[in-house]
């Protein structure tokens, strides 16, 4: 049995939110890069199949051998497994409901759409339809960010004055297309919080190295 966690992730992927959480927690882990979303590197992407038949990163293998997939679940699980890091409102905390709501929203309403955006031929065989599909998918993503921004009441961070894994998640996914400039337009309240997380000295080197 391994004594460290193993994380399958990739530069520029949602897995970097998990890398950021592990960094703040200070938990040792081994990193395996698997570039699942780059058709030019199929063998790299295939590496994650050892842990995730969905061929997606992130996937976290615990020292017991148990596998966790799904970015939101991994982030919530890490926050609970390492409560001393204070990366989520605990069960019973008044902010818990909104925490779970928005973790799930980012995963289901936004992140899942990249399966379509990254390879529109998965749903539309005719290349003539790809540009419109990508454009409309990006519009939907921007609209969802706007909906979320209209419903949250940030303090220094999205849920108030404490940084949570939701901030890490939004920080990373908001860098994907349609990218930050658009995100700042549609989500002006969260714009301030993501910039604060960008500048966090504990995380800035990670962002530069893994999301630059
Ligand atoms: N539902 C998954 C989605 C993960 C996902 O889409 N990961 C991307 C990288 S950012 C990926 O591996 N894409 C390859 C694919 O979907 O084929 C999660 O939340 O972890």
Automatic annotation (TrEMBL):
Pfam families: GST_N_2 (PF13409). CDD domains: GST_N_Beta. It comes from the Bacteria. Residues 2-86 form the GST N-terminal domain. Coiled coil: none annotated. SUPFAM superfamilies: GST C-terminal domain-like, Thioredoxin-like. This is Glutathione S-transferase family protein. It comes from Phenylobacterium terrae.
């Amino acid at each position: 049995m391994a004594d460290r966690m193993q994380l399958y992730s990739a530069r520029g992927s949602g897995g970097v939110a998990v890398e950021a959480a592990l960094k703040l927690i200070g938990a040792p882990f081994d990193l395996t890069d698997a570039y699942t979303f780059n058709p030019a590197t199929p063998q790299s992407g295939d590496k994650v199949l050892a842990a995730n038949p969905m061929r997606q990163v992130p996937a976290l293998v615990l020292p017991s051998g148990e596998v966790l997939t799904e970015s939101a679940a991994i982030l919530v699980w890490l926050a609970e497994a390492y409560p001393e890091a204070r990366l989520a409102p605990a069960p019973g905390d008044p902010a818990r409901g909104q925490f779970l709501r928005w973790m799930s929203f980012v995963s289901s309403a936004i992140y899942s759409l990249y399966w379509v955006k990254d390879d529109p031929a998965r749903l539309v065989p005719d290349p003539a339809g790809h540009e419109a599909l990508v454009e409309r998918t990006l519009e939907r993503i921007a609209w969802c960010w706007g909906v979320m921004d209209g419903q949250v009441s940030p303090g220094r961070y999205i849920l108030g004055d404490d940084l949570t894994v939701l901030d890490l998640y939004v920080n990373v996914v908001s860098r994907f297309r349609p990218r930050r400039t658009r995100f700042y337009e549609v989500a002006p309240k969260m714009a301030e919080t993501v910039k604060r997380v960008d500048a966090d000295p504990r995380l800035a080197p990670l962002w530069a190295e893994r999301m630059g």
